[in-house]
Every structure is written in C-alpha cells, then in structure tokens.
Design a protein that fits this description.
Shape: elongated
Strand content: 15-25%
CATH class of the largest domain: Mainly Beta
CATH architecture of the largest domain: Roll
Number of domains: 4
Radius of gyration: 30 Å
Number of helices: 10
Number of strands: 11
Distance between the termini: 68 Å
Strand order of the largest sheet: 6-5-4-3-7
C-alpha cells in the first residue's frame, strides 16, 4: 500500500503520543498534535480533520500496514496503547520478513569493503543482529556465484572513488602478454563486471581520437592519484558503448556482423529464455526441433568462447569466416583428445 508523506508523519506522531502515558490524550489533542507536526515538517498550516485522525487510528489498529496497534479508548474519551511497551517502530518481523532480510544481508556483505556501500555498514550489522536474535540460523536460500580469491578486487574502492571524483590515475599494469610492467596515466570512466571479472574502462590520455582502453583489475599492480592532470570530460555512456558487444572487447564496425546460429532442440529453450544478446531474433523453427537464430554483435573472443561452450549443440551458419575459424579450433580440440 502506497503511503504519502503526510500520512507517515501522522502515524509517527500518533505513535509518539500514545506511548506517553503521562498525559491523557483526547481525539482533539491527537488532532492538534498531528497538525503541529505537519506544520513543523512542511512549514505551513495543514488542516487535519477529525475524520482523518479517526481513519489513521483505524488503519494503525488493522494489519494492512502490519501495525496491529493495540489502541484502546478508556473512560470513553481518552486514547492510549493497551500495551505500554508497544510502538509501531518496534513491531515484530514476520518469518517472510526475516527470510528477505537474511538474504539481503548476505548479498550486501559481499560489498562490505566497497565505499559505495560504506554508509550501509552499520545498518547491515544491525540487520544481521536483528535477524539472528529473532530466528535460528539457517543456510542461505540464495547462492551467488563468487570467487573470494579473485585478484584485483582490492582496487575496486580506489577506482570507484577516482571515477566518482573525476581524478586521473597513474597505473602500473602488466598484461598477460607483457614481459614487464609499465606505468601510464589513465582517465577512468566506468567499472565493468563480466563473467565474474572486473575491468576498468577509460583512456590513457586526453586526445579526442584516443581509443577507449579496457584494463583487467587482476593485472593492475599499483594505483596512484595524479591531481595535477585535468580529468577528461567525455560523458562516456557504457550502455551505448557496449550495445553491440558480448563481454568487454569492443571492436570496430568491420567486426560488427550478422550472425546466424542453429541450436538443437534440447538447447533451444535455454537460448530463448536467456538470449545471447538483445538483438537476438528467431528466424525459423525446423522440423527436427532445432531453431535458427539471428543476432548482430562484434566477433570478439568472448563471443567465440560462448559459442564453443555449447559444443555440439550449436552450429554457426553465417558468417563463413567465423564458421571457418571455429572449425579450426574444434579440429585442434579433436586432435588433442584423440591423442593416445
């Protein structure tokens, strides 16, 4: 049920009044208290009617908001909580609430060292305490794929802050192909995650025609800030940049091609329910139960690995160059497994 701000202010005010047993609260007193609270919050007079407060009390008594407030009328005139310790801010959590909170806590704890969530640190701890004081420990219902030994995650916070505050970096980096590490200036634009690995996307210098570069966080050796170099204002849009790409390797327009794939009948439902790419379309359903799909993406290494991962259940029909390249790799694989 959607609640407006004024209603929440009134509920909170009524709750505070009804907890105060040192005063006898008439309906007129409650109306005045709600009016004063709204004036304090809004800075203007708001007419709170008798009918409005009566409906508020009725709503608080009901289970529509989960309050079930024990509001009673005594001496046919005054209002109070039958349970002196009751408050709508301290209502017990339901079993479903506890399950949701448990899973939320587990997911948030994965980012405990990421300053993006630093302000949640105390909240997460309090939620966790609340969960375990009100229910017995049980194993997680949601299991996320994670690798705690993944290298480079220690750089996430530093890079996030640099992007947020638009600070140029000095990075020491060594790719898998390089014999030695190199140091260079880098203007960070976004952080990208793919296949449980993190990447930094940006430019090494301020030249407009300089291509976008993607760095794997697990290949970064060290990072330092360089506040003397002005940051490039690129207005980089990650969604637009990766719209034709599966993975992180964005290629030129020549490598953006229409792909025709044939998927066998057993794997067709998986490809339909989890498309390779947003451009994917069904071209034809064949008599043997297989399906012809069409999509338009860059022919990068990530896409090839995805296709190879389907093994014998997928066939590349077009383009011919991709079909030929995959055939060579599969022939090499066959020879590898055919050796005695």
């Amino acid at each position: 049920m959607a609640l407006n701000k004024n209603a929440l202010i009134r509920y909170k005010t009524l709750d505070k009044c009804l907890q105060n047993n040192n005063r006898q609260w008439t309906l007129d007193d409650l109306i005045e208290a709600c009016s004063d609270a709204l004036y304090e919050y809004e800075g203007r007079d708001i007419n709170v009617s008798k009918r409005t407060v009566q409906l508020d009390i009725q709503m608080m008594r009901s289970d529509k908001l989960g309050y079930n407030a024990p509001i009673e009328v005594y001496d046919k005139k005054y209002y109070r909580y039958e349970d002196e310790d009751y408050s709508i801010t301290d209502i017990p959590l339901t079993e479903n609430d506890m399950n949701v909170l448990s899973e939320t806590v587990e997911m948030l704890k994965q980012f405990k060292d990421f300053s993006l969530f630093s302000e949640l640190g105390g909240i997460i701890q309090r939620l966790e305490d609340k969960v375990y004081t009100e229910k017995t420990h049980q194993s997680s219902i949601i299991h996320l794929d994670k690798n705690e030994k993944l290298k480079g995650l220690e750089h996430l916070d530093t890079l996030y802050q640099a992007i947020l505050k638009k600070i140029v970096l000095k990075i020491t980096y060594q790719s898998f192909k390089a014999r030695n590490a190199s140091e260079f200036v880098f203007h960070p634009f976004i952080l990208k995650e793919f296949n449980n690995r993190w990447f930094l996307v940006g430019k090494p210098n301020a030249k407009k025609k300089q291509p976008i570069v993607t760095l794997a966080l697990d290949r970064i050796i060290s990072i330092d800030y360089d506040t003397l170099i002005p940051y490039i204002e690129e207005n980089f849009n990650g969604d637009e940049y990766y719209k034709n790409t599966i993975g992180v390797s964005v290629l030129n327009d020549e490598q953006l091609q229409e792909i025709i794939l044939k998927i066998d009948r057993n794997n067709t439902p998986y490809v339909i329910t989890k498309p390779f790419h947003h451009s994917q379309e069904i071209v034809e359903k064949l008599e043997d139960g297989s399906t012809i799909f069409k999509l338009r993406v860059h022919l990068n290494l990530e896409f090839e690995r995805m296709i190879l991962g389907f093994g014998e259940t997928i066939e590349v029909i077009e383009p011919k160059q991709l079909r030929k390249r995959l055939r060579k790799k599969l022939e090499k694989t066959y020879r590898l497994y055919n050796e005695v």
